[in-house]
Write a structure and sequence with these properties.
With about 270 residues, the chain is of the alpha/beta class. About 45% of the residues lie in helices and about 20% in strands. The protein contains eleven helices and seven strands. The longest helix has 18 residues.
Length: about 270
Amino acid sequence: MTDTVVLSDLKARHRAMWASGDYPAVASELVHDLGEVLVDAAGVRPGQRVLDVAAGTGNAAVAAARRGADVVASDLTPELLDSGRRAAARDGLDLAWEQADAEALPYADATFDVVLSCIGAMFAPHHQDTADELVRVLRPGGTLGLASWTPSGFIGQMFATMKPFAPAPPLGAQPPPLWGDESHVRALLGDRVRDVRAETRVLPVTHFADGEAFRAWFADRYGPTIAVRRSLADDPERLARLDQALRDLADRHLDGGAMGWEYLVLTATRA
């Protein structure tokens, strides 16, 4: 099997994973506010050409379009783009929705004034390839804005909890929450950017009454959780242990029905 075939299979599995479940519900019910936060941090203005990479249903893209920017929302998974397109149309917003791989963006160098990714590009498996593309399509003097779950925060810990139960990652793949480590992102971007600003913030989440409510909701709706659970379909004992580990994790983080999900907001200027 050639490297090209292996890569194509990996992309197909990623598309299928994010199309499974109900990520639009995750985007609208849990993490909707992150789009506005990122657009604020990046200082998006009317008339700017903006690219949202791994946009999903477009939380950041839609927020940028509301400010009068000329926006392209790109994602590997067309089902998510379709959902975002319908929602934006209901709100009377006009933006482009284009299928694209964060590791090989189909745009010319220095095309955009602002490049954003809101808990999206962090899930592309090859971090350096993704960082190179984010920088490549940004014009000199343009703004890069990233929002990513941190390794130490709740979602980062959720991925660490699932890791022992999951199939081995593809060769060269890196854990998504590393994008929430400022030093890791600085190393990826190198001297191609300047004026790097990073701030750790917390997203309040009040959707879950207890650990079982969290486990069940994510088991039905969140692609990465669905994929790991499906891989254990023939091993009910390990599946039960995973489910209990997720319950326990959520219960430890719940305080009076509320959680705080930590994320990193990083902005930088293209040198």
